[in-house]
Amino acid sequence: KLFLLLSITAKPTLPTNFEEDTWAKLKSAICAIFLKQPNSCDLEKLYQAVNDLCLYKMGVNLHQQIEKECEAHISAALQSLVGQSPDLVVFRSLVERCWQDLCDQMLMIRGIALYLDRTYVKQTANVRSLWDMGLQLFRKHLSLSPEVEHKTVTGLLRMIESER
Predict the structure, then answer these.
(1) How far apart are CA 108 and CA 52, in angstroms?
(2) How far does CA 158 lie from the centroid of its chain?
(3) pTM of the predicted model, to two decimals?
(4) Exposed, middle or buried by CB within 10 Å (0-12, 13-18, 19+), for 16?
C-alpha cells in the first residue's frame, strides 16, 4: 500500500468575528454569574473559549473587557446599598452579604478565566490577577460611595467596641 502525504501550506485562519463572538459568550456568562442566574453555556466551553483567545494573543483585550464588565456589576452592587437600613448591624450584614457574593462570583469568573490568569497576567507587569482586580474594584467603588463607606466603617468600629 502506498500512502501519499501532502503538505498543507495554507495556515488555518480564525473566523472573522471570532473575538467578538467569543467575548459575547463570555460576557453573557459573567452577567449570569453576577445576576445569580443559570447560564446556558457549559463551564468547560467557557474555559476553552478563554484558552483559545489567549492562544491567539487576545489576552490583553480579554482582560480589559472582563475588568470593565466586573466593574459595572461591582459598582451596581455597592450602589444598591445606598439608602439601605440606618441600623448599622443590619447594614453591616448587607455589606457582608455583598462581599460574600462578590467573592463567590470572582472565584467563579477566575475559574473560567484561569488560563488568562496563568498566562497573560503572570507574564505581564502591572496587570492584576482577576481576584486582585475584583478586590481593587470593590475597594474603589466602596470609597466612591461615602455613605456606604462611612456606615461600613462605623458599623465595624462599633462591633469591635462592643466586643471589648
Answers:
(1) 19
(2) 32
(3) 0.85
(4) exposed
Give the cell for residue 92.
Answer: 453591616
Quick: pLDDT tens for 145-156: 999 999 989 988
pLDDT digits (tens, 9 = 90+) for 1-59: 666 666 666 556 777 888 999 999 999 999 999 999 988 788 899 999 999 999 888 89
**Eight-state DSSP code of residue 40:** S
- DSSP for 55-100, written as a single string: HTT-HHHHHHHHHHHHHHHHHHHHHTTTT--S-HHHHHHHHHHHHH
Instruction: Supply angle C-alpha 86, 34, 106, rounded to 5.
Output: 100
Type of residue at 125: A
